[in-house]
Every structure is written in C-alpha cells, then in structure tokens.
Amino acid sequence: MKAIRTTIKTIFCLIALMIVAGDLQAQQVPLFNQYYRMPSLAYTSATVFNERPRLSLAYREQFSGLEGAPTGVALAYSTNLASKMGLGFNVSSTEVGLIRQLRVQGGYAYKLLDKDHQLSVGALVGFSSFSINDEVVSPETQNDPILLNLLGNNGSALSVDFSLSYRYKDFQLDVAAPTIINESLSDDEYVQINEDNIPDYIVGGQYSFLLNVEKQIYVTPNVTWRYRDVLGSEFDVLARIDYNNKFSAFGGYRGNYGATFGAGVFINKSLEFTYNYDFGDPQIPFLSDGFSEFGLHLTMKTADERKVNKYSEGEAVYNRVIDENIYDPSILNPKDKEALKDYLYSLEFEGNKKERRANAELRYEELFARLKAQEVARLEAVAQARRKAERDSINAVNAERERLERERLAEEARLAEAKRLEEEQLAKEAAAKAAEDNKYTKATNAAIEKMSEAQKARVRAVNRLVTPDRLTEIGVSGDPDSPGSIDREAYIIVVASYGLDSKYSRIFLNSIVDEYNDARIFASRKRKLDYVYIGASSDYNAVIARMRKIRQDTRFKDSWVHIVRLSELTSN
Q: d(Cα 260, Cα 235) in Å, to the nearest integer?
C-alpha cells in the first residue's frame, strides 16, 4: 500500500511538473524579497549603483506538505567598481518535484550616463545544471517512460541576460531580457523545462517617498511587469515602508501568487533579516498553500571605507602608543600591532609593495626605539631632578647651619659689645649707684612692705632660690651639673637681663610668673648675667614663632632668642 502511495505521488509530481512548468518561473526570477534586497539576480545593470558591496541569501519554500513542493535557495553578491562599473555573482538552487536545478551566474555592468540622469547596461552569463532528485523516486516508478528518460541523465544550459537601469533622484527603473541566449547544452526532456521557466522580459519601477526626515521614514511603491510567451503578462504591485534603518514592512499583490506581506529587521547596521509570505493562488493546487521566504542581507564596507577604518584604527593605536609612551611593542596585542603596521604602511608612497612594507617595518622599529630612547631620557631627567633635589636639600641644610652659625657669632659679638658697654656703663655708674644704693634699697623694701602677705611670701621664696642648693626648684639654672639645668641645645626667649644673682631679676620674674607660668631665670656665670626668659625648647622654629607672639606684648617688644650653648655654662 505504501509503495502504491509513493508511486501515485511520484507520477503526480511529474504530471504537475509538465503542466505548471510555465508557472515555475518564480524559482528563476526575482521574488518579492529580491525586488528590494537582491536586484542583481535579474538586473546586473543595477550593480553600478551600489554604494557598498552587498551579499544576500534567500530561502523559499512552499509549506503545503506536498512531497516535491518547490523550494529554492539564492545567494547574490554585487558591488560597484571605479564608480562606473559593477559586478554581480549569483548562485541559486531550486527543487520542483523531481527536478533539481543549480544555476551559477556572473555579470558585468557599465554606467553610460553619470549626471542627474544615470543610465547603465549590464550582461549576465549563467550556467545551469539539471538532475533528478533520487530521494523521491521509488522502484515502482521505474516503468514510467518520462522518468526513465531522465534517470541517470543530467541536463545543462547556457544563458546570457541583458539589463538596463535608469536612475533619477529617488526614481528607479530596471529592464531585463533574460532570454537573449538560453540554449540547452543537452538533448533531453530538460530542454523544455529550461526554455519555458524563464520569462522573456522583466520591467520594474519604483520611487521612494520620504515621509519623515527626523525618523527617516520612507515609503517605496514598486510595480514589476513580467512577460512570457507561455503565460503572457504578469504584474506585481508592491510597497515597502522603512523606519530609521531599523525596521521595514512589505505588502502587495503578485500576479499568479496572490497577496503577499513581509517584514524586515536590522540585526545591526549592516545585517538585515527579512521574512515574506505569498498567500498563493487558490486556482492552482500546486501553489494554493502559499510560500514563505527568509532572507539575510549583508551590506559590506567599500574598499575605501575599509581602508579608512583600517587607517583610523591604526592611527588610534599610533596615537595611544605616543600618548602613553608605550616603548615596548610586546605590550600591544596582535591586532593592535597589525593595525599599527598597516597604518605605517599607508604612510609609504615610494617603491613597490615589498619595499613599502619593508619601510613600514623600519618605521615600526624606529618608533619604539625612539619611544624607548625618550623613556630612558625621561627617567634620566627624573633621576637628575631627584639628585638635584637631594643636593638642594643638603645645601639648604648647610645654608641653615651656616645661618645659625652666623647668628651665633653675631650674638656673641652683640653680647660682647653689650658686655663692654655694660661694663663701661657700670664703671661710670658705679659711684652714683653706690651712693643711691641705700636709697633705692630702702625704696624697694618699702615697696615690698606694701605687698600682700601672699606676694611677700612669693618674693621671699623667689629670693631664697638664689642660693645654689635651691636653684632647680623653679628652673633657675647656672650649673650644668644641676638637674634643673637647661639643655645646651635649647633656645630661650629672653625678655629682660640683670646682673648675676640680682634680686631685681627675681622681683621682675615674680611680676610676670602669674601671666607666664613657664617664666624662669637663666644665670649665665660666664657673662655674669641673669636672663629672665619665657619658655625653653630645642625646636628653633617653635621658639621663633612664640617670640613673635610675645613681642605683641609691648613690655617685651625687644625680647630676643638666646642660644643656651653659646653661654658655655660652667660651674663656679
């Protein structure tokens, strides 16, 4: 029973093939998808108008569930050359019932007019081979005379098509005569199939209307006329809407196929996926259940664009290498290395390709050698700057030491001069002072008597500290071996000076100790002076800062910093 069903299907396919051979041109001429995306299948002359190379793949199948239903695959590539020439290459494979056909075509186009009105012509040479699909042939059909004549035999045919394309602004008109030469190269039943399944003429016109500039919405109606002696005239009335180079939609009516619709989406800027469905002609059982068609359309960059992109990529790598001072080429990945070498190669204009490539390699090596030398120079400059900074720091320390030494010497000279002047003054005043001493002492004692008991007690305590065994109690220093001695490296802020062991220095200290609790007396045995000072520290800068603050008190506007070690403390 199964064998009978298989035989019936096979015979039906053969009969359908012979009856509707004239309607199978849909597998050989541009379909709805190709009108907009693969024009080079029919119009080689249109390839000169390509802005970029295009590669399209379309698959078409009738989903009727009928064994031997038509299917087809078409691959088309088209590109322009030197603005006035174009090339097109097509490969298509179709299966209708038992028949398989493989067609390979190559075409050339030339632009005759290149102004506002543009006109081009093209020729397409094709070779077709025919064979039987053994997968749908069963042993029960071996007695069929038609099938027996085809089994084991392959047919072939040669074709030459002519096309003409016209462009004016957004209007396009294409005319093709696919049957200028259409000769079978084999003498068999394939001859009639080859002669009948290609139309004699195809004419298509379309115009693109821009509806929205901002969103780039276009509407493009298309009318295509096909003519064949077997069937006469057939018209396709179609339209497409494009939105911002992202989406598209199709719709229309095709002669002998009925209504059709479709949609397209751009997967990325260069790749578009399309789907189209022809509802089919209910009057023809073989076409009644419709056809589905899928397409992928890739728009490639031109040689100039690829060159510019390559140049830009290489220039970006070059600039990055310069900006980041990448002097070691091993840091770059292989892709960046190649882009950089290609960029350097593009800068060479003299010599043949091999010589230019060799010069580019030299440029490449010189670039990194120069950057390495720059980096070495930079590091050396940094090292020199660091060494200079260290020298400057050492010089600054030495200069500070010299300054302090000059200050020390100046202080010694000042003190020596002060001592000399003081001794002279003392000599002059000795007589007067001796005469007035009793009077002054009496006045001082009278002043002390007027103090409160607490003040008197403090004065007495301070005066008691004059004795050597009590000096350390308030930091009065003069003995370097005493625990209360000031560090030889210390600095003190002197606000007054008196003769050594003078009670007046104690009285003055008593008058300010409440306000300045770190006020003390430093007894310089060498200079025979009591220095009343406020604060002692080994931090020179801190002492200077505090001296400036103390000078704001008008009583101490002549205060000065004394270096303790200059007094050369020695015990008596």
A: 13
CA distance 463 to 458: 8
484 and 391 assigned to the same domain: no
Q: What distance, in Å, lies between the first and last C-alpha atoms of the chain?
A: 144
Give the separation between CA 553 and CA 516, rounded to whole angstroms: 12
From 299, 332, 353, give the residue that closes a domain.
299
SS (H, E, C) 462-479: HHHCCCHHHHHHCCCECC
Are residues 245 and 123 part of one domain? yes
- pLDDT grade, residue 483 (50/70/90)? very low
Number of domains in the chain: 3
**Measuring CA to CA, how many Å separate 536 from each of 474, 495, 544, 548?**
13, 12, 11, 15
Residue 404, phi then psi, degrees to nearest 5:
-65, -40
**pLDDT at position 123 over 80:** yes
Residues 125 and 208 occupy one common structural domain = yes
CATH number at residue 124: 2.40.160.40
**Residue 394 CA: distances (Å) to CA of 390, 397, 538, 550:** 6, 5, 21, 33
Query: What is the spatial distance between Cα 11 and Cα 359, in angstroms, rounded to a whole number?
Result: 71
Shared domain for 244 and 341, answered yes or no, is no
Question: What is the Cα 128 distance to its own chain's centre?
Answer: 51
Distance, in Å, from the CA atom of 422 to the CA atom of 428, rounded to the nearest integer, reads 10
Our CA dihedral for 518, 519, 523, 527, rounded to 10 degrees, sits at: 120
Cβ atoms of 455 and 511 within 8 Å: the answer is no
CA distance to 66, 441, 442, per residue, from 438 (Å): 148, 5, 6
CA 67 from chain center: how many Å? Answer: 55
Instruction: Return the higher-pLDDT residue of 208 and 134.
Output: 208
Q: Is residue 83 part of a domain?
A: yes
Q: Which two tokens stand for residue 292?
A: 């589905």
> How far apart (Å, rounded) are the C-alpha atoms in residues 78 and 358?
35
Distance of alpha carbon 288 from alpha carbon 283, whole angstroms = 7
Domain span at residue 345 reads: 305-402
On the CB side of 117, CA atoms within 13 Å amount to: 0
In a domain, 408, yes or no: no
Per-residue pLDDT, averaged over 347-376, amounts to 88
Summarize the confidence of residues 372-400 as an average pLDDT: 91
* Main-chain dihedrals φ then ψ at residue 324, nearest 5 degrees: -90, 0
Residue 455 CA to residue 465 CA, distance in Å, equals 15
Band (pLDDT 50/70/90 cuts) for residue 19 is very low
Is the CB of residue 129 less than 8 Å from the CB of residue 99? no
Query: Which run of H or E residues covers position 148?
Result: helix 145-150
| Same domain membership, residue 464 and residue 393 | no
Q: Give the torsion sign (CA, 373, 374, 377, 379).
A: negative
48 and 133 together in one domain = yes
Beta bridge partners of 534: 493, 519
* Residue 431 maps to a domain: no
CA angle 265–269–271, rounded 5-degree value: 60
Helices assigned H by DSSP within 302-452: 303-323, 334-346, 353-449
Same domain, 288 and 311: no
pTM for this entry: 0.55
Q: Which residues, 6+ apart, have CB-to-CB distance to 536 below 8 Å?
A: 475, 486, 487, 490, 491, 492, 518, 520, 564
